[in-house]
Amino acid sequence: MHAKPSEEPRLTRNQALVLDTLSEADGPLSAYAILDLLRENGFRAPLQVYRALDKLVAAGRVHRLESLNAFVACQKPDCRSHATIAFAICDRCGEVREVDDPNLARRLKTIADGLDFALHGSVVELRGLCAGCAAA
To answer: Where are the CATH 3.30.1490.190 domain residues in the chain?
Structure first.
């Protein structure tokens, strides 16, 4: 009898520390902010953080926010199966909300098809103010 392969690859110590740091953060973190927070855990070089982040992004456990040059822990289950990932980012307080909208994914695919473009994936970043900041 063969052991059933685990669905998620086991995380290395560094990957687990980076993921935990992002999961506990109040908002997105840059790689250098992560490095500063993990120095007491033996992190000494940015490359340690970037290697862990690369693997976590590839596994769908972490997302890179291009406009902020920062990272957030995934808030939705099964992100690896989604071709489109969207985020609402508040410019005032920095809140980031992950958006799961199948209509957005379909619309982006329709646009790509109209351009005769083979879409592999997309990340959409909505910038503005969250409800709390807009009301203030």
So the answer is: 77-136
pLDDT band at 4 (very low <50, low <70, confident <90, very high): very low
Res 3 pLDDT > 50: no
One-letter-per-residue 3-state SS of 37-100:
HHHHHCCCCHHHHHHHHHHHHHCCCEEEECCCCEEEECCCCCHHHCCEEEEEEECCCCCEEEEC
pTM of the model: 0.83
CATH class of 77-136: alpha beta
- Tell me the mean pLDDT in the region 11-22: 97
Structurally, at CATH architecture level, domain 11-74 sits in: Orthogonal Bundle (1.10)
d(CA 16, CA 7): 16
SS3 3: coil
- Burial of 57 from C-beta contacts in 10 A (0-12 / 13-18 / 19+): middle
What phi and psi, each to the nearest 5 degrees, are found at residue 124?
Answer: -110, 130
d(CA 22, CA 30): 10
